[in-house]
Amino acid sequence: MSKRIYIADAIQAVNQKVLIQGFIDNLRDSKYMAFIVLKDITGKIQITIEKETHPELCETISQLTEDSVITILGTVASNDYVKLNGVEVIPESIQIESIADALPIVRKAIPATKKKKALERSSIDQRIDYRWIDLRTDENQLMFQIQTTMVNAMRQYLLDNNFIEIHTPKLIGAASESGADVFEVKYFDRNAYLAQSPQFYKQMAMASGLERIFEVGPVFRAEKSYTNRHTTEFTGFDLEFSYIVSYQDVMDLEANLLIYMLKKVEEKYGNQIKEIFGTEVIVPAFPFPTITLHDLYDELEKNYGYKVDESEKGDLTTEAEQLSYKWSMEKYGHEFLFVTGFDAQKRAFYHMRDENGVPLGYDLIWRGVEITTGAQREHRYDILKKQAAEKGLEEDVKFYLEFFKYGCPPHGGFGLGVDRLTMLLLNLGIKDAMYIFRGPNRLNP
Ligand code: 4AD
Ligand code: MG
After folding, report:
1. pLDDT at site 178
2. Which of 1, 108, 348, 431 lies at 20 to 30 Å from 374 by C-alpha?
3. Is 223 in the pocket of ligand 1 (CB under 6 A)?
4. 3-state secondary structure (DSSP) of residue 216
């Protein structure tokens, strides 16, 4: 028995005998001929069976269904009439590995034919019920290849810049970010919480003298949000680094990280992203434009007549977030926008504040959606303790405050949502962009 090869390699192996395996992507079984399109993670190839010359295969072929998994041993032949790469495999054996029942979802709309009515594509929620079947499509498989390149590029950039990768606990004794939106879980005879971010432990690494760290890991938010960009569990790309002079250092690092990443993604997948997802990967220029929240609201009102109540201006409204994209494109031709100058009431207690009490932090907006919150952190024990107390968190974060009592360098960092990056890169909603979405009504599969 020969060794299995990828279909992409089989396509190149004209006149050779190959062993290939995969899912049946398409099946046409007629009186004299049978055509199978076989798909693996690298591509698709046509299998052609002339029934008269291969009567021994007919019994097997009659059992096949679309999405069944088979093993084919056959010879690759060049044939200009074959639309798919101009090659076909003439099999000598077909082995059934697994038969698929009729599929419970429609992954792609199917237009009407003379014999059959048109089939509408199943909704994203129906498709998530059978996510593993939905993930077999070319688009979805490509999405995870792109995401792999994306996260790998960011990891590489940080490794090249002396960052250390850490893995912090997700079961914790106190709510991280704030008391709100936290999942409580039973922990033997008491309660624990699921980490809302690695924030406290990233900062502990600064007090540990690790200087530059990052983590890619799960983040939990008990938010009852039903939008196309919120989920209750997502993947966070978080980093923290010491001896910064200001949060501008954090913003610069993030901009350079994203430029590096988008360049890698563009080089490898730019054409396919355009072709399959219909959207362009644009490698942004450094520096990214920056505006204060106050000025942004002024600009949005001046340019688009967008008005919000004074009381709402301490934070970005969803509409302002979306409109800021239009503004940033018109003003700077830039897809990214840093927004600074949030109200301390709206920001986490651990953000350092300037002499006027304004947090030294930012949000980064890409294509009208927040992808990051970042800041210089307050590393001075007394001030930090006071800021925690103002938000009523002094008791909850007692263990965390200890990190700053025995020496801690000035530092800053940010949290970047991986799922949001994927979704914005490919112009999808978050449910489509996640391996398996988690929401208030979704714990399965
Ligand atoms: O803005 P967030 O809440 O900030 C933090 O977690 C801070 N500890 C970060 C810091 O270092 N200051 O979350 C960071 C990012 C968001 O900008 C967004 O991209 C993503 O995480 N995110 C979500 N993604 C999907 N669904 C949700 N419910 C999200 N909440 C935040
Ligand atoms: Mg945020």
Report:
1. 65
2. 431
3. yes
4. strand
